[in-house]
Amino acid sequence: MLHPALEWAAAAVALTAVGLGILGRRATWPFWILSSLLYAVVFAQSRLWADASLQFVFVAAAVWGWVSWGRVRFAPVHLGRRAYWLAWVSLAVLITLMQSGLRLAGGSSVWGDAVVTSSSLLAQSLMVQQKVEHWHFWLLANLCGVWLFWSQHLLATAVLYAVFAALALAGWRHWTRCAKGRHEIEQA
Questions:
Q1: CA angle 28, 24, 114 (to 5 degrees)
Q2: 46 and 61 in contact (C-beta within 8 Å)?
Q3: Residue 90 contacts residue 122 (beta carbons within 8 Å)
Q4: Cα 87 from Cα 81, distance rounded (Å)
Q5: Could you tell me which of 34, 80, 41 has the C-alpha nearest to residue 59?
Q6: How many other C-beta atoms lie within 10 A of the C-beta of residue 173?
Q7: Checking phi first, is residue 154 left (phi over 0); if not, alpha (psi -120 to 50) or beta?
Q8: What span, in angstroms and rounded, lies between the C-alpha atoms of 166 and 13?
Q9: How far, in whole angstroms, is CA 142 from its chain's centroid?
Q10: Is 2:46 a contact under the CB 8 Å cutoff?
Q11: Rounded to an integer, what is the distance from CA 123 to the centroid of its chain?
Q12: 43, 58 contact by CB (below 8 A)
């Protein structure tokens, strides 16, 4: 049985991680690790197998982010057009494959779980690489997450994902401005 305090604690830590990520702070990564470990338990108890497993990928990505962001300053850049569209095609393939596996595993809400997990994987990878467009994939994951977690009666998490969607828009604007400012400095 899920303890509501655990879900709320996971939501609070995740919110802190995203806020620090928007600002491009290296301190985002330890919060990602903690929130991921808490959410691994929350999602496993809800039989959202892909989202539960994803949390361990997030832990590994957070270690990668911590190391990577320690070597370079915050300097977001844009994906090229070809890489951007390749990311969307890859996402569609991953979602299709993942939902099939989740169905076989007896998962709950397999399409929603596959969309949230696949989009999150792609977003996290692009975030570590400081690509502005990672926010597009977070926005998709967050909007789908609102529906998914609400349907699974994870109300704190559904509300958190609605806030995450708004933060993804704010992050997208902030990172775009930072990338534009960097481009203008390099052109001068």
A1: 60
A2: no
A3: yes
A4: 10
A5: 34
A6: 13
A7: beta
A8: 17
A9: 8
A10: yes
A11: 5
A12: no
- The residue extents of the domains of the chain are 4-71+81-187
> CA-based Rg of the chain, rounded to a whole angstrom?
16
Residue tagged 């890489």 (tokens): 83
**In the structure encoding, which two tokens stand for residue 176, read together?**
């775009």
- Do 75 and 24 touch, CB atoms closer than 8 A? no
CA–CA gap between residue 83 and residue 64 (Å, rounded): 21
Are the C-beta atoms of residues 77 and 128 closer than 8 Å to each other? no
Q: pLDDT-based confidence at 103, cuts 50/70/90?
A: confident
In the block, tokens 């995203």 appear at: 18
**Matching residue, tokens 């960097």:** 182
Rounded CA gap, 22 and 55, in Å? Answer: 20
Query: How do residues 29-61 score in pLDDT, each as one tens digit?
Result: 999 999 999 999 998 988 888 788 889 999 999
Report angle CA 132, 52, 117 to the nearest 5 degrees.
Answer: 35
* Tokens coding 46: 């809800």
Q: Is the sign of the CA dihedral 160, 164, 165, 170 positive or negative?
A: positive
Look at the block and give the residue holding tokens 């990564």. 29
Alpha helix stretches (DSSP H) within the chain? 4-22, 28-45, 49-71, 81-104, 110-128, 134-151, 155-187
- The answer to whether the predicted template modeling score (pTM) of the entire model surpasses 0.85 is no
